Protein: DUF2851 domain-containing protein
Amino acid sequence: MKEDFLHYVWQFKKFDSNKLFTTASEVVVIENLGLLNTNAGPDFFNAKLKIGQQLWAGNIEIHLKSSDWYLHNHEIDKTYDSVILHVVWEHDVEIFRKDNSTLPTLELKNYIDKDAIVGYEKLFSQKQKWINCEDHIKFTNTFLLNNWLEKIYIERLENKCVLINELLLLTKNNWEAVFFKLLCKNFGLKVNGEGFFQWSNQTPFHVVRKQQHSVEDLEALFFGQANLLNSNFQDHYPKMLQQKYMFLKQKFNLDSTTAQIHFFRLRPNNFPTLRLSQLAVLYYKHSNLFLKLMQAEQLETIYGIFDIETTDYWKTHYTFEKSSKTSQKKLTRAFIDLLIINTIIPLKFAYQKSIGVESFEHLYEVLRQIQPEKNTLVDGFLNLGIHVKSAFDTQSLIQLKSNYCDKNNCLHCAIGNNILQQKQ
Structure:
């Protein structure tokens, strides 16, 4: 039994409230259960109860055992002076107020809906499971499941807005600079994402804008800031980039990143050298990239903007000074999809919220046109019988697994609540 379950039981009134008695045999009549408090302090605010002949307005505190009151040191915390009822699973000790009167206690275990307890035990059985509801999730009502997945995808976007808002503060609301940082981060993928993010944070965006007239200047800036121009090169091209970077570094008083940029365990097409060149070409080709993407409403329009390849040097190289067979190294559809999912849609969501847009269905529609992501997490849900049609579904399922299943937040999940409410 967990305290969260008692919160759930109280919040949704999953107990027989017709004949309630305190441990002192006083009748309890509930007029208002109160509002769940997710911060510090009593668990429910502004409840209204009649205990015996006295009408009370105040807060509710919930524990597994009455003695937890002392375990949590509530007796010395003024915040809990406003508690009018102590709700517990098991009453094992009396709790006293400062005036030595007894705090009314309601022992819930004899009142809770038995179906709710059985459902709870099914969800949180000791059997090792990938997710708690893996035996039940495929039987969830389709309408309920789809509604919940849409709600938690919005929650996922809101979570991504936290970083966006932090970057807006740092850049004094420079949306283009924020977009540049996030785009760099996602160009680096998982292996080099943090390294790319670090060098972008040490590269003032106004410097990037001033170099957009020359793709070589952009490459010099990006490679130099990523600490990839520190070798004693023999080839003309890297030597030229090195010279250009030294000039830019001195002119703009730049600091290169201390982050490690990795090649190990990456497929050649994901080498940071190629990604940096593609990023340089992107900003060379589109001087107003942020605005174009904020105005793009069709998926094909976005694909068109990212229809780019590396500079000529990288058509015959994967790393500096080591030649390879000539090949075009364009951004693939799969890579562009990742940029749309992780950068463009979250940023458009944040930006449109900032200008008063209230409906985001057009963003969800773009995501529904993108192929579902392929990873072990998605495979896990597929194995449980969950149908996945698009990236909208996979993003929602990632949010479900990471924020609810992995954290045992089943009592705050519509799927878990649905299981608890079923007749057992």
